[in-house]
UniProtKB/TrEMBL annotation:
Its EC number is 2.6.1.52. The gene is serC. SUPFAM superfamilies: PLP-dependent transferases. Its cofactor is pyridoxal 5'-phosphate. This is Phosphoserine aminotransferase. InterPro entries: Aminotrans_V_dom (IPR000192), Aminotrans_V_PyrdxlP_BS (IPR020578), Pser_aminoTfrase (IPR022278), PyrdxlP-dep_Trfase (IPR015424), PyrdxlP-dep_Trfase_major (IPR015421), PyrdxlP-dep_Trfase_small (IPR015422). Its main location: cytoplasm. It is found in: Cytoplasm. Pyridoxal 5'-phosphate binds at W105, T155, D176, Q199, N241, T242. It comes from Massilia glaciei. Gene3D superfamilies: Aspartate Aminotransferase, domain 1, Type I PLP-dependent aspartate aminotransferase-like (Major domain). HAMAP family: SerC_aminotrans_5. Homodimer. Binds 1 pyridoxal phosphate per subunit. One of its GO terms (molecular function) is pyridoxal phosphate binding.
Amino acid sequence: MTHIFNFSAGPAVLPKEVLEQAAAEMLDWHGSGMSVMEMSHRGPEFISIYQDAVRDLRALLAIPANYKILFLQGGGLAENAIVPMNLVGRRAQPATVDFVHTGSWSGKSIAEAARYASVNVAASSESDKFTSIPAPESWRLTPGAAYLHLCTNETIDGVEFNFTPELSDDTPIVADMSSHILSRVVDVSKYGVIFGGAQKNIGPAGLTLVIVREDLLGSALPICPSAFDWATVAKHDSMYNTPPTYGIYIAGLVFAHLLRAGGVPAMERRNIAKARLLYDALDADDFYQNRVAPDCRSRMNVPFYLRDESLNEKFLAGAKTRGLLQLKGHKSVGGMRASIYNAMPIEGVQALVDYLNEFAGR
């Protein structure tokens, strides 16, 4: 098979070593005679897989002891409903949820939360077409809000928070980190909740990860389904219902792989180098454009546009012949997008840069 580099925004590239191990263990996991997909989620074999995954993720992110790690289903979009159903009950009703609107995914979160609470858009970069992050001093926050929601990396729009806000009250910060979790060092203690779909840096689609501070458990609205009540899920160690077992298994392999590779600090160094290499090529002249303010450019998702967009199809066809796949931008914004998650090697980014230079005729 011709070697390819997959720049898909998600489901996305996984480490080759992980895929090879999963393939080797597909029919018989560690002499059990069973595939992981065939195991009881309550049996000792899978419980050991689950416990290893929790242990390794806690080590990777230095997650404090007073935080629970939950594995759920439904993806990041469903979690946009599960979050308010678990948190707005902490405050007297009607509760208010604060949002910083920085792109497509925070926009989806706002619309979903409005079904369960009053929403205050404390700040928005919509007026500049989501190419920046509003300065924290401009945020109009609600005293006593149920929580402040941030999408700390906008997969479609390509903006990323490079700071953690400091709030003056006890309002917990909820962060959708779907598309950059495990790519950079994060102080988990600064957040009340971190959540994300797995299909970017962790594993296959279908698995959702929630990291939640223990004091935020137990306030779910009566309408919250029991399988999505974080307190119930935590009490049963993510086994209240049948969890996405194979997704947890692959995630565990990824966590172990990252630890062997030097952990999150090593990933961050590599991601800085990959992003710098790509952005430097895009900025070399005006043949290509990245419209995001330099101080909040995403290291994971790099949208860009050709100056002459009539060349888009020719560009994509040429990229495909070179094994550079999934570069077409999201349908809502057009252009191109290169997603360079943890598993994308720097050789893949260099191959893309070589093609960018060749196509531009440099």
